[in-house]
Amino acid sequence: MAVTNKTKSYLKLGSIFALLSGLFWTTSIVISLLIPSFLRGSTSLAFFEKAASYSTFIIIKDWSNIIAYLCFIAVIIVFNHLARPENRAYMSWVNVLILIGLSTALYEYVEAARNFLPMIDRMADMTVDVKKIYARFQFYNSDDFLLWHLTACIWFTIVSGLAWTNKMIPKYLVILGLLLGLSNGVAFIGIINADRGLIESYQLFSIILIPLWSIVEGSFLWVLSKKL
Asked: How many Å apart are CA 210 and CA 223, to the nearest integer?
């Protein structure tokens, strides 16, 4: 990796946005664990009946995710720039892949943030049968972040695998990345099988892994920018 002022600026950018994305994702996960489970995923009749009581938490959760995804785009760009020449083709592929998954998740959260309060107001005047129909429509209109977790699993696994032979990158950082790949794979399987236990296991692991990875990754990139 050629050391230039441009490279140093990328390292600093990656450091800042790795920390920010971790902060906002952790905020979202903490809120998800604090609110009732039926408010975490697809809309349901119970969601419409109780969501108004937790509206502040849900809005903060949605906007935390939006900011986290926007910050993570910067991390992806930085990783693409820092890729070794022999890995650039693989990195280009997985980076495009995760941007596709990220864009679907970002769209879901933007739509949720935009429609949440108007939806709750409309639901207050609807009958139970209409609410059930609307909830079913919303269920089939969402992928429950399936594509995001699949592409995140592939991205963290391949990026960490390629970094294994890079002597500049600490092995503990590579292992953290592999664990994040695994945890997103667990979430993907949980969504496919509608297994709430697997999804909650992912959330519990993530509340440890995401802040830990973001702090370690952000600190590593910052220190590296000062050393080079």
From this structure: 20
- Whose tokens are 């890729």? That residue is 83
Residue 9: partners with Cβ closer than 8 Å, 6 or more residues away: none
Determine contact, residues 155/197, Cβ cutoff 8 Å. no
Please state the domain extents for the chain: 5-140+208-227
**Burial label, 128 (beta-carbon count in 10 A; 0-12, 13-18, 19+):** exposed
pTM over 0.90: no
The tokens describing 200, both together, are 């909650």
| Residue from 25, 41, 36 nearest 194 by CA | 41
pLDDT for 42-70, tens place per residue?
556 667 777 778 889 999 999 999 999 99
The token duo for 222 is: 């910052």
What does the CA dihedral 48, 53, 56, 62 come to, rounded to 10 degrees?
A: -30
In order of 22, 91, 170, 187, the CA distances from 164 in angstroms are 22, 14, 9, 24
Residue of 76, 71, 67, 65 whose CA lies nearest to 99: 76
41 contacts 199 by C-beta, under 8 angstroms: yes
Read off the pLDDT of residues 75-108 as tens digits, 9 standing for 90 and up: 999 999 999 999 999 999 999 999 999 999 999 9
Rounded to whole angstroms, the Cα distance separating 185 from 25 reads 17
